């Protein structure tokens, strides 16, 4: 394929998905009156130019390229085309906001970012953890978009100085979605982020999220206890909430009373009492948890432990015979212990109630159809790092890009985990505030995030670029 330059989003958006696939065209450049297009060799450029000039209102110039090249460009830049549903079935007259949401849902995006700058507003989707710029709109059109969004989310359109949060309920392409909206003022206007919350839990299963066999056994054992705390740590977007929901699905039984407090409720689970946080009326994690203790629960799930009050209530709940599941923002499983102690939880109490500490990350999975096998000796920067870290590896795989992965080189994500079960020996470490447990982890054969990252690199599941940050931040 010819080496086509990256096409700006401002040019790409001049052609709709329908038009791109109908005429087999991809915009190349635009200079106010002349729109230059790539067109597939199977199409008649003269007829296409005449027809598109009427439709688009610009002077059109087509450059014929091969069928394979135009298909590659279409799949790369207009990737939300669905093979199972024609775009002509969609309602073309739908407004731009609805188009954004439907497009994000079709792509499997988790978030939509609307970011104003001095002269333009950029709209991006988050796919597999990375932002993909989808549209560029003029700064003059931006106020109308942000106001429409705020109205749908029941936010105050007159308030532009303070952050606001709201929700939108949408039925899109036969899929019910809740959308969490966050608006924050910036120097050039209000930035908005829409988090798409899909209610379908059919793919959320504990044996499919990334645990290996030994880790799954350790984790299952920790959640089968009738009391104690199981904590899952990791940065935002690392899959912690998905792990919690998979755990609840496993534990859900008509003989057990399960209550959750979440912000937001990302999935709805039948048979589980789910409470949505509402800070405006004082309904926070700690207050709801205090109420839960009068509701005779067997299992309590907290969306996140953010402060001492919530941590203290979680410990109290575990001490009174409840199983508590929650998340916390730390960099490693052992870092969770020190974080809770820093919050003010006495180490002797923590040692007695903690069942297990789990850390997790998500890494992008290489596309099996196009990944390229490379000998480490031929790669200078990678070889230097691998030699320095004493990683025993001869070959690694890199991302290439093909039709199956929309030319990103990656297809989906996989979870990597480290689990520290709190046994008598590790409890003593906690009580004595000993934080160097490298020898203990090695003696027990426990896998760390570093170990799992290296394993996936060796097995060819992911690339060096994906695991590099994890290899750099080895915490043991």
Written overview of the protein:
With about 475 residues, this protein is α/β, with parallel strands linked by helices. Helix content is about 35%, strand content about 30%. The protein contains 17 helices and 18 strands. The strands form four sheets. A seven-stranded mixed beta sheet has the order 12-11-13-14-10-15-18, sandwiched between helices. Strand 4 and strand 5 form a beta hairpin. About 5% of the residues have low confidence.
Roughly how much helix do the residues carry, as a percent range?
25-40%
Whole-number average pLDDT? 87
What distance lies between the first and last C-alpha atoms, to the nearest angstrom?
Answer: 45 Å
Radius of gyration: 26 Å
What is the count of β-strands? 18
Task: State the strand order across the main sheet.
Answer: 12-11-13-14-10-15-18
Please indicate the percent range of residues in DSSP E strands (runs of 2 or more). 25-35%
Coarse structural class = alpha/beta
Secondary structure tally, helices: 17
Apparent shape:
globular
- The oligomerization state is single chain
Indicate the low-confidence ranges by residue numbers: 81-94
Largest sheet: 7 strands, mixed
Give the topology.
Elements: H1 9-12, H2 17-23, E1 25-30, E2 34-40, H3 45-56, E3 59-65, H4 67-77, H5 96-107, E4 111-116, E5 120-127, E6 130-138, H6 142-152, E7 164-172, E8 175-186, E9 189-198, H7 213-223, E10 228-233, H8 240-251, E11 258-262, E12 273-276, H9 285-292, E13 299-302, H10 308-319, E14 323-328, H11 333-343, H12 347-353, E15 354-366, E16 372-375, H13 380-388, E17 395-398, E18 410-421, H14 424-431, H15 438-444, H16 449-458, H17 464-472
Parallel strand pairs: 2-3, 10-14, 10-15, 11-12, 11-13, 13-14
Antiparallel strand pairs: 1-2, 4-5, 4-9, 5-6, 7-8, 8-9, 15-18, 16-17
Helix pairs in contact: 9-10, 12-14, 16-17
């Amino acid at each position: 394929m010819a080496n086509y330059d990256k096409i700006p989003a401002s040019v790409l958006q001049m052609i709709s998905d329908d038009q791109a696939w109908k005429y087999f065209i991809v915009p190349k450049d635009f200079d106010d009156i002349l729109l230059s297009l790539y067109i597939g060799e199977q199409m008649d450029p003269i007829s296409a130019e005449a027809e598109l000039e009427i439709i688009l209102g610009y002077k059109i110039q087509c450059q014929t390229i091969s069928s394979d090249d135009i298909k590659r460009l279409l799949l790369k830049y207009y990737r939300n085309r669905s093979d199972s549903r024609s775009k002509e079935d969609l309602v073309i007259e739908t407004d731009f906001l609805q188009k954004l949401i439907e497009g994000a849902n079709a792509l499997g995006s988790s978030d939509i970012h609307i970011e104003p700058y001095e002269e333009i507003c950029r709209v991006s989707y988050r796919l597999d953890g990375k932002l993909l710029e989808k549209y560029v709109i003029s700064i003059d059109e931006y106020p109308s978009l942000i106001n429409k969004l705020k109205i749908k989310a029941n936010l105050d359109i007159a308030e532009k100085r303070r952050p606001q949060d709201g929700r939108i309920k949408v039925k899109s392409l036969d899929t019910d979605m809740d959308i969490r909206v966050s608006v924050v003022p910036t120097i050039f206007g209000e930035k908005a982020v829409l988090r798409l919350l899909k209610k379908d839990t059919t793919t959320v299963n504990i044996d499919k999220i990334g645990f290996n066999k030994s880790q799954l056994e350790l984790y299952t054992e920790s959640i089968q206890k009738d009391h104690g705390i199981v904590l899952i740590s990791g940065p935002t977007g690392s899959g912690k909430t998905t792990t919690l929901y998979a755990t609840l699905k496993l534990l859900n039984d008509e003989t057990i009373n399960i209550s959750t407090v979440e912000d937001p409720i990302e999935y709805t689970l039948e048979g589980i009492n789910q409470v949505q946080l509402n800070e405006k009326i004082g309904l926070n994690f700690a207050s709801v948890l205090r109420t839960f203790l009068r509701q005779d629960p067997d299992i309590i799930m907290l969306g996140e432990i953010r402060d001492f009050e919530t941590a203290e209530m979680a410990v109290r709940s575990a001490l009174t015979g409840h199983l508590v599941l929650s998340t916390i923002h730390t960099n490693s499983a052992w870092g969770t212990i020190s974080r809770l102690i820093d919050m003010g939880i006495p180490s002797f109490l923590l040692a007695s109630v903690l069942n297990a500490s789990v850390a997790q990350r998500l890494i992008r999975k290489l596309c099996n159809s196009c990944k390229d096998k490379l000998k480490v000796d031929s790669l200078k920067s990678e070889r230097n790092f691998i030699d320095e870290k004493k990683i025993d590896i001869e070959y690694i795989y890199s991302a290439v890009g093909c039709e199956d992965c929309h030319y990103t080189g990656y297809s989906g994500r996989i979870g990597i985990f480290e689990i520290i079960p709190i046994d008598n020996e590790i409890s003593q470490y906690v009580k004595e505030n000993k934080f160097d447990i490298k020898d203990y982890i090695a003696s027990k054969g426990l896998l760390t995030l570093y170990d799992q990252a290296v394993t996936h690199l060796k097995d060819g599941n992911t690339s060096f670029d994906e695991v590099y940050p994890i290899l750099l931040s080895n915490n043991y």
